[in-house]
TrEMBL record:
Residues 63-143, 156-246 form the Cytochrome c domain. PROSITE patterns: CYTC. Keywords: Electron transport, Heme, Iron, Metal-binding, Transport. This is C-type cytochrome. InterPro entries: Cyt_c-like_dom, Cyt_c-like_dom_sf, Cytochrome_c_Oxidase_Subunit. It comes from Paraburkholderia kirstenboschensis. Pfam families: Cytochrom_C (PF00034), Cytochrome_CBB3 (PF13442). The keyword Transport applies.
Length: 247
């Protein structure tokens, strides 16, 4: 699977893949086909088929099952994080389009146990540094549609959240984009992209930071310090706005 990730990332929208006896298809059109299928089971099956197609391009592709089993599995990631890392309405974060260095660093923290998440720590324990990098690069290059909440957020919440994200609220609440860059698209390893994150994830994450602020003194300028200045209404507003903002 690691070979598939690296081979996939070497393909651009002008690359064409040829299966034996099959019509050629562009990487971009294939990805759009995967996303349009919707069902997770179908996506996983399609990813497997596409991996086989990529492997077929090289006579040197390994058939050693034990070796491939040790590589990172995209299907494991999308089982929780949604099609091509889109995230989920239930609160699983969006991976797609984020900074690859940030994603790889997050995986390394899960593996080291310095970032808490039992499921992610279990997954990260199986990954090498090169695995983490390969997965990070793969998901950073994906751009699936935003997760659609049901019901969608109220326009009043979205507009209020937009103001908080862009300008903050006076001196007490710092604007989200002052650190996470214009549009919430992210700023290097330290400040990930927050645009497009499912509302449930943003709400839960900010509450985590608030819990840290209550447990120990906070450092100025950290997310823990920023979250401590927000009330529940403001958190809901920001989450609503970010959930409908393209990354």
């Amino acid at each position: 699977m690691l070979q598939f990730i690296k081979r996939f990332n070497s393909c651009n929208s002008n690359d064409r893949f040829h299966g034996k006896g099959a019509k050629s298809v562009t990487a971009d059109s294939y990805l759009r086909h995967l996303v349009s299928r919707g069902a997770q089971a179908g996506l996983i099956a399609s990813l497997g088929a596409f991996a086989s197609m990529c492997f077929a391009q090289s006579n040197g592709a390994t058939t050693d099952a034990s070796a491939s089993a040790k590589g990172p599995s995209i299907t494991t990631c999308v089982a929780c994080h949604g099609a091509l890392g889109a995230g989920s309405e239930a609160g699983v974060p969006r991976l797609a389009g984020n900074n690859p260095d940030y994603l790889a660093h997050a995986l390394s923290m899960f593996k080291a146990g310095t970032r808490a998440s039992a499921p992610m720590q279990a997954v990260a324990q199986t990954l090498s540094n090169s695995d983490m990098h390969a997965l990070a690069v793969f998901f950073s290059n994906q751009h699936p549609p935003l997760v659609q909440a049901s019901p969608p957020p109220l326009p009043t919440l979205v507009m209020a959240g937009k103001q908080l994200a862009e300008t903050g609220a006076g001196r007490s609440v710092q604007a989200c984009f002052s650190c996470h860059a214009a549009g919430g698209k992210g700023n290097g390893v330290r400040f990930p992209s927050i645009a497009g994150e499912p509302a449930a994830f943003t709400i839960a994450r900010l509450h985590e930071f608030q819990a840290r602020a209550k447990a120990a003194p906070v450092k100025p300028g950290t997310m823990t310090a920023v979250a401590a200045t927000l009330d529940d209404t403001q958190i809901e507003q920001v989450a609503a706005y970010l959930s409908v903002t393209e990354r």
